[in-house]
User: Fold this.
Amino acid sequence: MPSVDGIIENIILLSRCFRSRAQTEEVMGTLSRTMTGGRDGYGNPERNKLAYTGDFADFLVKWAECKDVAASSFPIDIEAFSLYYNYRSFMEVARLVCGRQRIFITSHGHIGLGPENMAKADTICIFGGATMPHILRKVDEYFVLVGDCFVDNLMDGEAVIAMRKGEVHTGPILTESFLEKTGGDSQNYSQAQPPIQMGRPLQLSRIALR
Assistant:
């Protein structure tokens, strides 16, 4: 199980890999939705996509204060964004959602939260009628269900819409920047953040864990 410090170090790394001109609100919104699995305090889908952005920024500010780390070490202005918010609201939801979960990214730049037992060559798929993407593992000639996952900006049919248009849906992370900052080797990245290689349109992603 990764430490809080390790998770935040990876959050700082991810926040430096967003596509050019990404605003603070977009960065904090994406990361906070992932860390809460897109849920509210009751476990229901949170329809307000910016619900925990300020609270998440305040969480990072409080962590920086406890660790005597300058807030300026973050590539975004978390202090200005955290004004008038309370980190406890974010922590209450994240504590419930993140247990036995891990953050991952995809080669097309999506960020997600999935089961801690994801493994190399697992595949993320979207099933018709399902409310969540699912992770499958190929065993011989069959697929075994590993569990469901949250993938930011893919929870409302965006991948299916893109497929019908003949397009590839991309997320906010520049994977080239990510690989450059991790030395071009996925194994240099924290165990909590396994990168994923994209597969066919509805067979969205193939996990590449060390």
